[in-house]
Write a structure and sequence with these properties.
two-stranded antiparallel sheet; 334 residues; single chain; mainly alpha
Length: 334
């Protein structure tokens, strides 16, 4: 495990921050993506990235061709799932997958516009020299297509993971590219995928609440007695990271120590954010990390001013990176 993390730690030294927008007119409307070792790198070699890229990209034309192929593949997968759901008379799920397919088609169009603006032509499929990375878990897709227990929440949870894998892939490409232009474009693609993750997580939360409102509803008095805020969860998570650090060594231990210190710093900024069942303090570090990432993303929607929005976006980005790191450790140990 240590050797695996050492290689990853040595691979990425990107220090640039670029605004992401495939459509150039939107540059002033998007946050900055900082592909720095302490944020992007932990997502590169995790359970999200199912396999290392089969080669390296040699040109922007090749990058656009691969990006186009990946988005086309996602759109086709979701379209097929929508058709499966219709055949099974699952209209709600069919609609979810149809909407996901439509969103992926928009991403295809976005890549095409970007290619045309930069290279004066649409992506050329013939330039894809190796098979596009597998961002879909084939087994999960089969299970969702066949299971009678599939819900919109489960469907959206799969979509979230797919976009996280795509983010990890483009982050990996940026990390290993020696060409500055390709590196910057890959960072832009990674930022788009992270934006997709944020949108889908919001939709997943809505689906979860819709499915569980009836069973999780409590009286006002009980709810108040059982709630804690993000600060309490961050402090609990820091303690769990300290325990985890003692069981690691080398680069993995060093990275976990950095995350523990960062988690304590985050705890000082999040008092009063979120309302969580106190029982969450007894859950594992990965679960707490995912709950916090969702909470920061959700809080952005109701933030009162731009400074608060910026803070919550930064917290969400760090929380997502932290979650991916914890998942990578779980995968390495299995």
């Amino acid at each position: 495990m240590t050797q695996k993390h050492d290689r990853t730690n040595a691979a990425l030294s990107i220090g640039t921050c670029i605004p992401f927008a495939l459509d150039q007119f939107a540059l002033d409307q998007v946050p900055y993506f900082c592909a720095r070792e302490d944020r992007a790198m932990p997502l590169l070699r995790t359970s999200l990235l199912m396999s290392e890229p089969a080669g390296t990209l040699e040109s922007l034309d090749e990058l656009f061709a691969l990006a186009n192929a990946m988005e086309e593949e996602a759109a086709n997968r979701y379209t097929a799932l929508a058709e499966d759901m219709r055949r099974q008379n699952k209209s709600a799920l069919a609609e979810v997958f149809a909407q996901l397919a439509a969103a992926e088609r928009e991403h295809v169009d976005s890549v095409t516009r970007w290619s045309q603006s930069r290279r004066g032509k649409a992506p050329d499929p013939a330039l894809v020299r190796w098979e596009a990375p597998e961002t879909f878990d084939a087994e999960t897709v089969r299970e969702i297509g066949a299971s009678r227990l599939t819900t919109p929440y489960r469907a959206l949870a799969m979509a979230v993971r797919n976009e996280e894998r795509a983010f990890a892939f483009w982050s990996y490409v940026a990390a290993y590219s020696q060409d500055a232009e390709i590196k910057q474009a890959a960072e832009a693609m990674a930022r788009e995928e992270l934006g997709h993750v944020s949108i889908l997580r919001k939709e997943r939360r809505r689906a979860y609440h819709k499915e569980h409102d009836a069973t999780e509803r409590r009286g006002p008095g009980d709810a108040a007695a059982m709630q804690i805020d993000a600060r309490a969860l961050e402090i609990r998570l820091a303690a769990q990271l300290a325990d985890l650090e003692r069981d690691l060594d080398g680069a993995a231990a060093a990275r976990t120590r950095e995350l523990r210190e960062e988690t304590m710093q985050m705890s000082e900024k999040v008092e009063g954010i979120g309302k969580f069942p106190v029982a969450l303090e007894q859950r594992d570090a990965e679960t707490i990390s995912e709950v916090l990432a969702d909470a920061y993303l959700e809080s952005v929607e109701s933030a009162g001013d731009q400074s608060q929005v910026a803070l919550l976006q930064e917290l969400a980005e760090r929380a997502i990176a932290r979650l991916a790191w914890l998942r990578s450790l779980t995968t390495a140990e299995s």
